[in-house]
What does this fold into?
Amino acid sequence: MPHIPLRPNFFLRRRYLPFSVLLQPKFIHAPSFLASELDISSPTFMIYGSNTGVGKTLVSTGIATSVLSASEPSHCVYVKPVQTGFPDDSDSRFVYRKVLEIFRTGKPRGIFASNRVLKASREVLRAATELTEDNIGEGLGFSGPCHYEETVMGNGFGEEKGYKLICLTLYGWKEAVSPHLAVEREGMAVDDSLLREELRSWLSVSIGGQKDEKVAAWRLVETAGGVASPGPSGSLQCDLYRPFRLPVILVGDGHLGGISATISAYESLKVRGYDIVAIVLEGRGLHNEISLLSYLRNGVPVCVLPKFPEEPSNNLIDWFCESSKVFSSLQEVMLSYHRKRTQRLHDMREKAVDIFWWPFTQHKFVSMDGVTVIDSRCGENFAIHKMRSNKEMLVSQFDACASWWTQGPDAVMQSELAREMGYSAARYGHVMFPENVYEPSLQCAEMLLEGVGKGWASRVFFSDNGSTAVEIALKMALRKFSLDHGLMNFENENSSGAFEIRVLALRGSYHGDTLGAMEAQAPTSYTGFLQHPWYSGKGLFLEPPTVLVSMEIWNLSIPDCFESDNLRKDDLHFCSYGELLSRDRDSSAIALCYSSYISNKLLEFAASNPQNYIGALIIEPVIHGSGGMHMIDPLFQRMLVGECRNRRIPVVFDEVFSGFWRLGHESAAELLGCLPDIACFGKLMTGGILPLAATLATEAVFNAFGGDSKLVALLHGHSFSAHAMGCAAAAKSIQWFKDPSTNINIEHGEGRLIELWDMKLVRRISSFLAVKRVVALGTLIAIELHAKGTDLGYASLEATSLVQQLREDGVYMRPLGNVIYLMCGPCTSPLFCNQQLVKVYRRISEFSEAWI
Amino acid sequence: MPHIPLRPNFFLRRRYLPFSVLLQPKFIHAPSFLASELDISSPTFMIYGSNTGVGKTLVSTGIATSVLSASEPSHCVYVKPVQTGFPDDSDSRFVYRKVLEIFRTGKPRGIFASNRVLKASREVLRAATELTEDNIGEGLGFSGPCHYEETVMGNGFGEEKGYKLICLTLYGWKEAVSPHLAVEREGMAVDDSLLREELRSWLSVSIGGQKDEKVAAWRLVETAGGVASPGPSGSLQCDLYRPFRLPVILVGDGHLGGISATISAYESLKVRGYDIVAIVLEGRGLHNEISLLSYLRNGVPVCVLPKFPEEPSNNLIDWFCESSKVFSSLQEVMLSYHRKRTQRLHDMREKAVDIFWWPFTQHKFVSMDGVTVIDSRCGENFAIHKMRSNKEMLVSQFDACASWWTQGPDAVMQSELAREMGYSAARYGHVMFPENVYEPSLQCAEMLLEGVGKGWASRVFFSDNGSTAVEIALKMALRKFSLDHGLMNFENENSSGAFEIRVLALRGSYHGDTLGAMEAQAPTSYTGFLQHPWYSGKGLFLEPPTVLVSMEIWNLSIPDCFESDNLRKDDLHFCSYGELLSRDRDSSAIALCYSSYISNKLLEFAASNPQNYIGALIIEPVIHGSGGMHMIDPLFQRMLVGECRNRRIPVVFDEVFSGFWRLGHESAAELLGCLPDIACFGKLMTGGILPLAATLATEAVFNAFGGDSKLVALLHGHSFSAHAMGCAAAAKSIQWFKDPSTNINIEHGEGRLIELWDMKLVRRISSFLAVKRVVALGTLIAIELHAKGTDLGYASLEATSLVQQLREDGVYMRPLGNVIYLMCGPCTSPLFCNQQLVKVYRRISEFSEAWI
It folds into this structure.
């Protein structure tokens, strides 16, 4: 059985540039640093074939002819990014010549046509010396690697008048094999991103003269081979061109077996997020179109072309004449699609403002322009719709808030997850969980226990989101506490409210928006009567000491309520994060200070609430996310856990935000160096593609629900408990993040991430005067700006201008008050991270100057 | 542009048989009434081709030879369900003859081989009269429609000894076209379910003699054409054979363009839930296998065969000899896959019991045998793993609890949803919602407002499940009430608990398991200290009057606390459900009785709780689901809504269970004949494939959150708010359910479902002595059994034996205490529904006899 090493994938090839290099002007102004934009004002389509040899170029030629000869004609740009078998085969030459021939025999019209080849392999060049006039063009020469020919047709006009047909081949190789093989044999490797950049620039080129500005220019991109044929780098073409997500004309197959080939090609495009505008195929008497329309439920038009002439080198003019009606109705379909799409992109903002009720949003503050229309996402980037100088643009923006901290996939992983979702929906849809087992639920549970639950957890309880996972955790913890402290028999007594069980939690921590989870957070403006009339705050809330980088140094900030008089200045500053994590600190003066604060608080509580118990500890390990990305001193959290253990109070870690390498480790518990009894996970668990949450628990906690009655069991559940698609996404994502062969950011043997943000750059940012503090950990970097005047916290507008500028730079940011942050995925390349960080560096540098 | 009427699909062709017919013995004992079972003890595989002509039959022959000649040989059954071009082409004849030839030239071994064709079209028969010995077989005749030939090879043994090769063609057509065209031209239409039934029976046939029982018999099923080529009915083969979900050997394509064709075929299988065990392809010097392995990340083995001989009619023996190593390693891969799969199916139960924490489950009561291993679902049915007389079986069971009331799709819809999920994940993954808009979120919101929100709602707030949707609804309602009743300024005052706002709700209703939703339900054993120490019951809970069918009559049951002395007997009985819904009842004596009960309760509350307000009404319209499938008198709920309107108390409908045709109407509000201010939806909304919930509200409710501060906005949200896949699934599902062209159960013009359960049969069930009451409405039929002795309600085990029997009949049921129920999807065929109902009828009939 052959087992072949994986071809290095373009997505996996990553370089790591130091920030000093990145700050050089050539990098800052490199295209990848600007938001990359695609002009979609004109009808622009991708021609894909369900196989090789199904007539893609005939279809391109037919469409181009139709566009140029319509009653309201347009210019036409035809691009063949990749051509093999060149120059014997040249699809752009074919289109160029055939269109001219058709116009010569048909209605005469002013046309300027050109055909050029931009780059050719050394084999092509070597052979070019032997080329005769005859096989390269109509009397126009082959100049260096490039081949250029042009024709002006019609009476008395130059390039400025008439309609233009511009045909282009970007890269040509000599051998008639798949492009990736041609590269292997002839050289001229082309990076995917480079190829896309070139294609993008040709799609954006303006071709109308001044008078012609209102004439639309159609743009057709013809791929090579079938939809999933490899491009020059080996990436499949349907993946290679996916970031553009151009609408597709799929050339189907009219032969025996063609129904299957066409449907499968259609599905490969579909599960990569493409929209297929129409299917065109040769009619060969088998009526494949009937089966196709039935499959498509008439949702996509199918155009049938007359049978191709037997000998393709024949003069095809008759065939094109015969086909002209089909092409003109196809052109109508395409145009109408283009207009509808554009119209919809325009209407969406208004409709959204009209009918959505966005969470956490004061609608009064949302202007129509402030609404972002997201056409798609590809890995870490959104493609958003914008108008720029009257043009319709799709602009790429890095999703720097990771869509509320959920996102993990890069483009390759997203594509794999998409197929996994199709598979899982087809195999299971959703099937119910209690007393049942099915592969994804079991696989996901096994991976959780071997990963984030390793060494302590033995049970997995599934739910839908972080908030429900926390409510379940609290029910578990309070039951365990009640059992351990002999409160189980007081049930009847307690219906009169004889005592109350509360939780121990930290101020500034947040555990979700449902009431039970809200009760575990300290009172804020989120928990007042205005927001939830039933909130009462069932906790003892402690003030935590925090850690921050400011002026290039790690500093500890201890709240006033601590007895910190005995601490030396040295205790409060650290050279590195490693120093902060060191277990040596457990016996330091700070540890004593923490321990006495905690004990005193617990004693005070007991004294003033004799009827009440502390029944659980709940913390967000290391980082308080929603609370403003504050880093809590790990020593303090570790001591808190220790104090609770001593008192047999169950410990809950809310890792909904911190889990799955968000902070560099699979579980943030690793950073704390201690283990919980119960922990909650969500967000990134499914790769961020779907809602799913899990509450993990020890066997001792589980056993607290065993008994002779169903009524003792944990009577909590949601309809979609352990839904198959969510579990499948989680199993796939955790595996993907964990495996060094798919995630090159994983340190071999260590299982944690390498540093994704250049620490030198982070320190430099921390030294700007406008910057109050920086936190950089794993996939997260957060920067708090100094407030001018009163600090309004979450309601602050300090960061507004900065955020606007960064959005223009292609970074989609949402601040938490005056805290801005970037969040990448566990497998995002450090190069990409640093490119984004440099943008932030530049803007904060300007902002800081203005600030002074 | 051709627009062709849809070919009637086998799934859409439905008949409606009256129950009297269904109760006839021939129906009761028809195969479709028994749980359909597939024996997977032996290695059983499907051979699919990435296109026509890629060598499927060569591969089948190679595997069969390898199986029969292995060091531990096995029998081999080869089935070609559909053959066109017959008898000139006959793949089963090819396999039969080539295997014999190979054995003749190679190592001699005892073999009994046969080949038969079961049915042939009239064109085949007509031509058969002209057949000569030469072109049909080795001296064995063509008998009637069937063709049979056999050979015994080796020394001194008969059929009982040696290894058997049994080759079969189920159906043969003469013309060499796609099967669906052959049917059109030659007749012999074959229904998909019939074809599957025949295939299933041949896959289950036992072929070993007594001595040979331990010899496994491999089974190979070779499809026709490509993976998505149509079968005889026009259904694509990958859909047609999907209910078996046999592991697949995919024969790939080694030609230029073959990478694309193979990957696309692979993906078509994947997004239908198939597992592909290996890809086999002809090596043609292009090394397509390298690209394939890279794409597959080495997850699926790729076997490369020597180049096929140029002239296929050649004697191929040399080629087979050359290929034998490839086939024997392929066979190893297949065998190891088979063993691993079987082993995993066995291990899953134990692992599940070991690491899962199932919701609502007392684990102590779950025996290992009680755990159901679900291999897959196809439409309304699970395929579950069972052992039967030492054989591994996959048994089909109707998911009668609709997986906690979530499920809607039939097999066709599930397949379409799966592709939609792949598309949506590839296009969007998940993108964040606030201040953004993307197509699925907008489309879903539009469809909700045009459907369930029509005439009242203008805003959509998305969340993750019914429980969160209810918490959000309560926050909305309480804010609106506070604003309308001048309580907004009391915020500071109320931090001292000066007053409390409660909800009005009905006893027995249920709104979710998170604390806020729990607070809106009356105290039960679910809400006690044992389950949630923080529950306090923030409601005024009324007793509702219920409706039930018993002894064939609709009866009203009014709680004792009502002043019902004035009611006549006639007021309490109804001939039909329509009568019950009539608005004439609004002015009846019962209406007066209801109204005085409600007013008195509200007055009592105000008198005894002077500091408290009733700030919202929350009800489950028409049916209390979890409370035991009780139907509430719609008149009572309508009057309740009216009374609250009069007092400016916002009205919330919890339609998480009742929405989207679950009760026959798109919204259950239509049944009540009144509208809410706020309503919650979930479960069936996504077709039941994914968690997603929505809270709809009027503009007046929305406006209660407008203001000059973000802190006045609704500060509640979940990470996956309006996640793209959920919204896409919802938009697709609602459209599918609503459209008569996809859902034949929709009454044209009415938008509601036809009757799915035969009402005569329902009445007959209601007349059994063991039956206390029946509720049948829309997709639901619930049957409450009389309790023997004390009624234990939810903890009752009354139904246990009945449920066990029905599971044996292929109905997967979970009782709610002594209430059993069936729940189909909005597009499930009434024929299927009645088949299931007849099973229930039969079992309850027996149960009732025993009960007396």
Q: What stands out?
A: The first helix of chain B runs from residue 19 to 22. Chain B touches chain A through 195 residues (CB under 8 Å). Chain B has 27 helices and 31 strands.
